[in-house]
Structure formats: structure tokens, C-alpha cells
Amino acid sequence: MRKTMLLIIMISVTLAASVSCASKKEKINFPVEKAREWGYTGDQQVGVGPGEITIPNIPFTMTVEQYRKSGSDIFCELTMRMNGQYFRGIILRINQDGDMLPIDEGNPLLYGELWKGRKWSTFVFGSKINVKVRGKEKIKTSGGEYDCWELSFAGGGTKGSVWLADGVGVVAMEYTSTDPDNTGRLSIKLKDFNKGGTDKE
Q1: Among residues 20, 36, 57, 155, which is most buried (max CB within 10 A)?
Q2: What would be the CATH architecture of the domain defined by 2-194?
Q3: Could you say which DSSP state residue 23 is in?
Q4: pLDDT per residue over 95-127, tens digit each?
Q5: To 10 degrees, the CA torsion angle through 62, 68, 72, 78?
Q6: In what order do the strands lie in the sheet with 25-28?
Q7: C-alpha distances in angstroms, 1 versus 4, 66, 101, 128, 167?
């Protein structure tokens, strides 16, 4: 359960960012209004070696259930559904600098300004997670082709990469558990994205 929640947090931290590079600045906008929904499909491997099990075409959805503004900050509540599991009550805060923070922790999960090579550390459920911006890459999925920023992460018995696109959010993710008691891998890619829904609370 803890590893699954860590995976979900690493996906949800990438909902908003301002991106700058040495020669110019560009802003990546991720809609977080109520009723936005992202649909993914992926493959999960449980275990390593002769006893490993691969589960193909796992459905994964992420929905913004609540959205509100308080001064210059934005608060959103996420619901995640993956392979029959349901998670609710993941609340994140985005400040005026575009930094994203968990509601109950002070360390930013994602900084508003990113550039190739930037590194930082944050904490999720008490585990230190190291993040690095790798650069830009085109990612093709069943939902289309996207110009993405790749961010890698490692720590807390996990490692992987997530790819982000302007106006969309998470396009793809690869995740590996390095915990010997909970080994496995998961890869997901965007299938569809509901751009509707502008209700604000």
C-alpha cells in the first residue's frame, strides 16, 4: 500500500510547473479544475525472476474532484483508480511561484522553475526522494505525440521517470520498486484526456 501511494504521489506532483531554460522561458500549464480526468493504460510486473507475473493493459485514471483558490494559492483534491484500487483525498497546494506542495508537508514536491540538469530533494511519507530534470523528448502514445520534459526520481525504495507535456500533464511514467520485499515495475502512457470541466469551488 505504501509503495502504491508513493507512486501516486510521484504522478500527482507533476500537475503544475513553470519551466525555464538558459536561452528562454516557457511555461507549462496543467489544468487542475474540477472534473478534469486523465486516462492511462499500462503494464505491471510483479516480482522479479522465474516467479514474476506480468499484467498487461492495466487501466489507470486520475481525476480532480475538488478545486478552489485561496488568495494566490490553488488547492486541488485528486482521486486515483488503478487496477481495482481506489484512492481519494490526495490534496495538493500550488503557490504563486508554481511550486507544488503536499498539504501537510513543507518541502515542495515540484519547483515552479525547471531546467535541464536541475536537481532537488523532497520527502514523501518520510522517505527522501531525489529528482532531476533530464531534458526534452518526444513521447508517442495512443492519445497522440507530445513534446515532453523528462524528470527522473529515486529514493524510498523506488526509481523511475515521468514525462510531462504543456497543457496536458503526465504523458508517461516508468516506475520500479527497488525494495527487495516489494519488487516490481509499472509503465503507463496517456490514453485520453478530458479537457472539459471548469467548475470551481
Answers
A1: 36
A2: Beta Barrel (2.40)
A3: S
A4: 777 777 776 656 677 776 778 888 888 887 778
A5: -20
A6: 25-28, 17-20, 113-114
A7: 5, 24, 22, 18, 31
